[in-house]
Design a protein that fits this description.
Chains: A mainly alpha (213), B alpha/beta (197), C mainly alpha (244)
Strand content of chain A: under 5%
Pfam families (chain B): ABC_tran
Largest sheet of chain C: none
Structural class of chain A: mainly alpha
Number of domains of chain A: 1
Number of strands of chain C: 0
Largest sheet of chain A: none
Domain ABC transporter (chain B): 3-196
Keywords (chain B): ATP-binding, Cytochrome c-type biogenesis, Hydrolase, Membrane, Nucleotide-binding, Translocase, Transport
Oligomer: heterotrimer
Protein name (chain B): Cytochrome c biogenesis ATP-binding export protein CcmA
EC number (chain B): 3.6.3.41
Order of helices and strands of chain A: HHHHHHHHHH
Strand content of chain C: under 5%
Chain lengths: 213, 197, 244
């Protein structure tokens, strides 16, 4: 499984998600104005939406690259279950997108005048929440892998599924920044991620099986 | 291990393409599939490999004994030859890639990135992957595309070596490889209206 | 006779050939009575005035917006488990009806909300949930349209419907949570069933009945169309095979 993560990572282009995240964050003050009073309250939400879009950006590569060079057929005939394959793909996607974004989010919060303890809460919420984004995205990618122009459709399918994660995740960060108790949304966010982890690999593998045939 | 197909009907998108196909391939023999483009050779090979389910009939043994080689090799250009092979070897629980490298004369290219290989070298790498799967039945779809006469000859030698070791090869190809085996023209098995019922 | 015998397309077509127009007629009668009664023969609400009468469109539409998704979920499950083509096609047929109901509910809600709350749109949990439901419908329909092979499309959309249902419920709870968190107590909840008086209630029931008949009639009609499209598709395949 680790080889798989490695293989995907050397597939290249995944680091762009982080750069995208950075640029979006930097662009926001140009749109809404540089005042701290205006930036600080919306910072957690902006950073979460930015992270979500950055995740979305690299989703269509999850299976499409392997589909193009024929590796997906070979992986499907290899003696590993497709559930394991999708899990490994999601893990690889998270390692290359979710994890760096979670780490980068804390320093980026400074740009958006995020009040102090909020940085930690923001990183923590992203750390807990982004695996769910990768898993959901993996499912969406499995649904659309057989399509020639699946990229846009993938976003249409995946974004509504991101809503619960976004709601809970942004709420953790917001409450953390305002110094409120963030334990409840954090627990709910964790529950969403665990639920995705338990169920979605099966759904994604089922979709992949249909798409391949 | 003998490859047996009984009354096999295969197709794509709900439409049967080949119907009531039966054949037996003994160990050490090859089966060459012939037929014009779109006649169902690829679909048949994918069905034998378990990538899609047959509409009717059955194949023995199951897909866990079959190594599939499609039009594309599935090799990552950003990884070296050895890394690519090790990855597939690891997936199939094979540790040593040396024999595969040696068999396809890839030792000198071991540390070359796959994207810098010539077409013939790339094809050899793709075929070396078949060895590290440790599977005895090879299903190959147009394996000599992009190979010149010399490399085609080498490819034929490699398949001969596999057959000599008791392996089986089912190959869709237009050229005569001089292999020890039978030729199956798929045209007579073209699915007719009755197969749709 | 088992209920599954209706899963046979030929039988389904035969039965629905007469059932569909009958249901359509029933829907027309009920809606004319219900809406006429509601619009012209009920008093204006003492607080809301005549705007309250939009309830006769809003509530039934909202009800069947949700029911349509539920029907799609059941039909998808039946397709995945028993592989009845009629079931897959019925799920496909229900989606556009469902999204239309959702849009009616949203638009009438906005028209109602404008004079009442002074705004076309508020991020009330209910409104937001319907907006999300609308997005789910869009994704589902888009996936159906994008895939050429009908069985593949049916399989993938069914899986999407299953996963989507879980996430739709999850979103509903998330939205409740989120709204409470944002502005406490500023609830614009309009739980009509609980507080509407009898004089509004009976015409509302008639309207709901009318929408029910309309919904079933539309879904049957669309399913019949889908079956015909599939038959045409099969005929074309045969032709192609005969030519080749």
């Amino acid at each position: 499984m680790r080889d798989l993560a490695l293989a995907v990572r050397s597939g290249g282009g995944f680091g762009l998600g982080l750069v995208f995240f950075l640029i979006v964050t930097v662009l926001v003050p140009f749109g809404v104005g540089p005042e701290t009073a205006r930036l600080a309250p919306i910072a957690p939400g902006i950073l979460w939406v930015g992270a979500l879009l950055a995740c979305l950006l690299s989703l269509d590569r999850i299976f499409a690259l392997d589909r193009e060079d024929g590796a997906l057929d070979l992986l499907a005939t290899a003696p590993i279950p497709l559930e394991g394959l999708t899990l490994a793909k999601a893990a690889a996607h998270w390692l290359t997108t979710g994890l760096p974004i979670s780490i980068a989010a804390a320093p980026l919060g400074v740009f958006l005048s995020l009040p102090w303890p909020g940085h930690l809460w923001l990183s923590l919420s992203l750390l807990v929440g982004t695996p769910a984004l990768s898993l959901i995205g993996c499912f969406g990618a499995a649904l659309t892998v057989g399509l020639r122009r699946g990229g846009l459709l993938l976003s249409v399918l995946v974004l509504p599924l991101y809503i619960p994660t976004l709601v809970f995740g942004a709420d953790v960060a917001r409450r953390g920044a305002e110094g409120l108790d963030a334990a409840t949304p954090l627990a709910l966010l964790g529950a969403v991620t665990l639920g995705c982890l338990a169920g979605l690999p099966f759904a994604a593998a089922a979709a992949l099986r249909v798409s391949l045939r | 291990m003998t490859l047996v197909a009984r009354e096999l009907t295969v197709g794509r998108g709900g439409l049967p393409i080949l119907a009531r196909l039966s054949f037996t391939v003994e160990p050490g023999r090859a089966l060459i599939l012939r037929g014009p483009n779109g006649s169902g050779k690829t679909t048949l090979l994918r069905t034998l490999s378990g990538l899609q389910a047959p509409y009717e009939g059955e194949v023995e043994p199951g897909p866990e004994a079959v190594a599939y080689g499609g039009h594309r090799d599935g090799m990552k250009g950003q990884m070296t030859v050895a890394e690519n092979l090790s990855f597939w070897a690891g997936l199939h629980g094979v540790r040593d890639i040396e024999p595969a490298l040696r068999a396809f004369d890839l030792q000198r290219l071991e540390d070359r990135l796959a994207q810098h290989l010539s077409a013939g070298q790339g094809r050899r790498l793709g075929l070396a992957r078949l060895l590290v799967t440790g599977r005895s039945i090879w299903c190959l779809d147009e394996p000599t595309v992009s190979l010149d006469a010399e490399n085609t000859g080498r490819f034929a030698d490699m398949v001969r070596g596999h057959l000599a070791g008791g392996g089986i090869a089912v190959i869709a190809t237009h050229i005569d490889l001089g292999l020890d085996g039978d030729t199956l023209d798929v045209r007579p098995y073209k699915a007719t209206l009755e197969a749709l019922e | 006779m088992s209920i599954w015998s209706f899963a046979n397309p030929t039988r389904f077509m035969a039965v629905t050939a007469r059932l569909t127009p009958a249901l359509g007629a029933l829907a027309a009668v009920l809606l004319v009575i219900g809406l006429g009664w509601g619009f012209f023969f009920t008093p204006d609400d003492y607080r809301q005035g005549a705007t309250v009468k939009i309830i006769y469109l809003h509530v039934p539409a909202a009800l069947f917006a949700i029911n349509a998704w539920f029907m799609m979920l059941v039909a998808s499950l039946i397709w995945l488990i028993r592989r009845h083509h009629v079931s897959a096609l019925a799920a496909r047929a229900a989606a556009p009806v469902g999204i239309t109901m959702t849009l009616i509910a949203l638009v009438t809600g906005a028209v109602w909300g404008q004079p009442m709350w002074g705004t076309w749109w508020a991020w009330d949990p209910r409104l937001t949930s319907f907006l999300i439901l609308c997005l789910f419908y869009v994704g589902y329909i888009a996936l159906w349209e994008a895939i050429e092979d009908p069985d593949t499309a049916a399989d993938l959309t069914s899986v999407l419907c299953l996963v989507g249902s879980v996430f739709a419920v999850l979103s509903r709870y998330a939205v409740n949570f989120w709204n409470q968190g944002l502005h406490q107590g500023a609830s614009l909840s309009l739980d009509t069933e609980e507080n509407v008086a009898d004089v509004f209630y009976y015409p509302l029931l008639v309207c709901i009945g009318g929408f029910a008949a309309l919904f079933v009639a539309l879904v049957l009609l669309r399913t019949r169309t889908e079956i015909r499209v599939r038959r045409l598709h099969a005929l074309r395949l045969r032709e192609r095979m005969a030519d080749a």
